Amino acid sequence: MRRLVVVGSVTGAPGVTTTALAVAAAWPSEADGGVRPVVVEADVSGGDLMIRFGLPAVPSLLDVAAAAGQSHPGSLLGAMSELPFGVRAVIAVPGRGPCREAVRLLAGEGGQRVLLGDDHDRGTVLLDVGRLSGDVAALLAAADQMVLVTRGGAESLTHVSACGLDAEACAGRLTLAVVGPCPYPAVEIADTLGIQRVLMVPWDAKSVTAMNNSRPGALRTLRLPPLMAAARRLARQLAGLQQDGTTVGDVAGDRPDESNGSPLVGQSGTGRAPVLGVEESGS
C-alpha cells in the first residue's frame, strides 16, 4: 500500500501547496522503490493547480471521489496529471462546493482505499488539504506522517499552540514546517509547542517562480536553492531515509535573528485538546 502524508495548516495561507509541491519535486529517487510521489489537491476550498498550469478540468479530484463508492474504483493514477517541473498531481477544480463534497468522500473508507491502493501498490501520496478542518479528520487519523505548515511570526505560531495538538497521538508522525523568516530557533519552537520535529523552510523567490513556470524543466535548471534544500531534507525524513533525532534544526541561510530577545509565545504548552486542530469551518 502507499504511504499517506497529509500537508496542511491551521490558519491563513502559509504556503501549503508550494511546500507539498517542493517536497514532491525533491523526493529521493531511492525511496519507495523509485516510485515518484503523487500530490493530491484535497482542499475543501478548491484547487489552484488547474488555473496555475492551464490544465483541463478532467481528470481531477472529482473523478477520484466518484470512484470511491464503486466496488472496483481503479487506480488513483488514472486521475493524475503531470506538472511541468516533473511532479505528478491529482488536481482539484476551483470552488468550495464540489471540492468539499469530494474531500468528504475521499475521507471515507472507499476514498482511503483509492488513495492507499492495494497491497501491491507502492509510493507516497502527499495530500494537500489546505487549512485543516473537520472534513479531513479521518484522513489525519489515517496518515503515516503529517506536515503542519506555518509562518514564523509569533501570531502564526500562537495559532499552532492553540490548535489543540495531542502530543501522544502525533508522536513520531508530526513535523512542523516553519516557512519564511523566523526569529526563533527551531529548538525553542519545539520545546514551547511540544512538537518533536521542527524544520525551518526558507522562502526563496527563484524556487517559487520556477515551480509556477509552465516551461518544462524550469526547476531543474536551478542550483539547489534554500527552499529546495529544505524540501529535500523534509522529503528524506518523510520517506524514512533520514532521522534527525528529536528536532530537525535550522537550514543554512535562514538562521534566526539572535538579536530578537522576545519570548516565543505564551509558554502554555500543556492542557491541549485531544484532537489535531480541526475546525468545522474549514475556510
Notable traits:
283 residues; alpha/beta; Rossmann fold; eight-stranded mixed sheet; 11 helices; 8 strands; 31% helix; disordered C terminus
Could you explain the architecture of this structure?
This protein is an alpha/beta fold. The protein has a single domain (6-238), classed as Rossmann fold (3-Layer(aba) Sandwich). 31% of the residues lie in helices and 15% in strands. The protein has helices at 16-25, 49-53, 61-67, 96-107, 109-116, 137-142, 154-162, 167-170, 186-193, 205-211, 226-238; strands spanning 3-9, 38-41, 81-82, 88-90, 124-131, 145-151, 174-179, 197-201. An 8-stranded mixed β-sheet has the order 3-4-2-5-1-6-7-8, sandwiched between helices. α3 (61-67) crosses α4 (96-107). It is globular and about 50 Å long. The model is unreliable at 245-262 and 265-283 (pLDDT under 50).
- Please bin the fraction of helical residues: 25-40%
Report strand order across the widest sheet: 3-4-2-5-1-6-7-8
- Rounded to an integer in angstroms, the radius of gyration calculated over CA atoms is 18 Å
CATH hierarchy, class = Alpha Beta
